[in-house]
């Protein structure tokens, strides 16, 4: 048995020596290939790299344009918030899946409308064809904090079934407006 163990070790040592020799040959070949380039070729590749790098940095020079776009978007958002009365307090977006023609993003959106606080969670599925991009809202979950939970829960559950955010904001707007009218009316009679 001792002879068999030595035989196995001898074969393993021989295998490792062959592997070391093969790796040493590959290393020498790679060293020779790297010295084949002339100084002119090295300078050309450095110059082309510098040109590419300068081209990329020129794209960053348009930051004043980006700042102007950001200010424009902020002013548009401010106008929409004043016009609709909806104030968004937070938004979290997470990409769940992304392929060449399909993107799935998970969104969490919180905000207030008059006295009502709301939170939306949904997934946005974007499919891209050669001609167009289509987006579908899935897994819509709505939470509205209200004193009148029974009234609100009816249109919230309906909106969750249909997955239509536009109808949610319209219904929320209408509900809040009429709730305020009812509150003032009851205050008048008290």
Automatic annotation (TrEMBL):
GO BP terms in the entry = CENP-A containing chromatin assembly
Annotated coiled-coil positions are 6-33
Q: Which organism is it from?
A: Atlantisia rogersi (Inaccessible Island rail)
Organism classification, top ranks? Eukaryota, Metazoa, Chordata, Craniata, Vertebrata
Q: Mind telling me which InterPro entries this protein's record contains?
A: CENP-P
Keywords annotated in UniProt: Coiled coil
> What are the record's GO terms for cellular component?
chromosome, centromeric region; nucleus
Q: Name one Pfam family in it.
A: CENP-P
Q: What name does the UniProt record give this protein?
A: CENPP protein
């Amino acid at each position: 048995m001792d002879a068999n163990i030595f035989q196995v070790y001898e074969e393993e040592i021989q295998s490792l020596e062959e592997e070391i020799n093969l790796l040493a040959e590959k290393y020498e070949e790679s060293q020779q290939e790297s010295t084949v380039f002339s100084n002119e070729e090295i300078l050309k590749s450095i110059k082309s790299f510098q040109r590419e790098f300068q081209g990329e940095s020129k794209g960053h020079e348009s930051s004043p344009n980006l700042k102007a776009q950001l200010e424009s978007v902020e002013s548009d958002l401010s106008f929409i918030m004043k016009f609709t009365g909806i104030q968004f307090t937070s938004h979290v977006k997470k990409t769940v899946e992304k392929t060449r023609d399909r993107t799935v993003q998970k969104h969490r959106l919180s905000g207030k409308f008059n006295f009502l606080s709301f939170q939306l969670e949904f997934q946005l599925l974007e499919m891209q064809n050669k001609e167009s991009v289509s987006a579908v809202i899935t897994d819509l979950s709505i939470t509205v904090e209200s004193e009148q939970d029974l009234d609100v829960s009816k249109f919230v559950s309906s909106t969750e079934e249909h997955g239509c955010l536009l109808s949610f904001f319209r219904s929320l707007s209408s509900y809040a407006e009429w709730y305020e009218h009812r509150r003032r009316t009851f205050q008048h009679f008290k």
